[in-house]
Amino acid sequence: MSELSHVDEGGGVRMVDVGAKPVSRRRAIARAEVRMASATARRLRELPKGDALTTAKLAGIMAAKRTSELIPLCHPLPLTHVGVEIEVGDDAVAIVASAETTAQTGVEMEALTAATVAALTVYDMAKAIDKGMVVSEVRLVEKTKDVV
């Protein structure tokens, strides 16, 4: 088993020192899903612009920008782009979030945070009509690092 990056030799928590790492262009994509009744999904699809889905997109973007405040050992990053795409299916809402930076550490936590908070926002917006919703399948889909 490999070492945990945020645990020192004595078992204490630590912030990873990235000072000696070169600056790289980094990108990460994460995904989350909110499963729901088909009637709930239909109602979400029928909403006009400026609706719950736009609110969820904005929540995801805002959350990515605040990841280091939410996850104690994350480095604050100068994000160059955050995107959140939401698609309503027959019985679920799929969320795909991307985050990009040029820095010494990756942006997977920012992408995961964006996807998760967007999913929680969809849940919050629809909870009054669907008590059985489930936020699931939160995962990192891809991460890349390119030399600057």
What's the N-to-C terminus distance? Answer: 32 Å
Number of helices: 4
- The domain count comes to 1
Shape estimate: elongated
Structural class: alpha+beta
Tell me the CATH superfamily. Answer: Molybdopterin cofactor biosynthesis C (MoaC) domain
Summarize, please.
The protein has helices spanning 38-46, 52-65, 67-70, 108-126; strands at residues 24-35, 79-88, 92-103, 134-147.
Keywords:
148 residues; alpha+beta; Alpha-Beta Plaits
Notes on the structure:
By secondary structure, the chain is an alpha+beta fold. It has one domain (24-147): Molybdopterin cofactor biosynthesis C (MoaC) domain (Alpha-Beta Plaits, 2-Layer Sandwich), CATH 3.30.70. It is 31% helix and 32% strand. It contains 4 helices and 4 strands. It has helices at residues 38-46, 52-65, 67-70, 108-126, and strands spanning 24-35, 79-88, 92-103, 134-147. Strands 2-3-1-4 form a 4-stranded antiparallel β-sheet. A hairpin with a 3-residue loop joins strand 2 (79-88) and strand 3 (92-103). The longest helix has 19 residues, at 108-126. 33% of the residues are buried. The mean pLDDT is 92.
Which helices and strands occur, and which strands form pairs?
Blueprint: E1 24-35, H1 38-46, H2 52-65, H3 67-70, E2 79-88, E3 92-103, H4 108-126, E4 134-147
Antiparallel strand pairs: 1-3, 1-4, 2-3
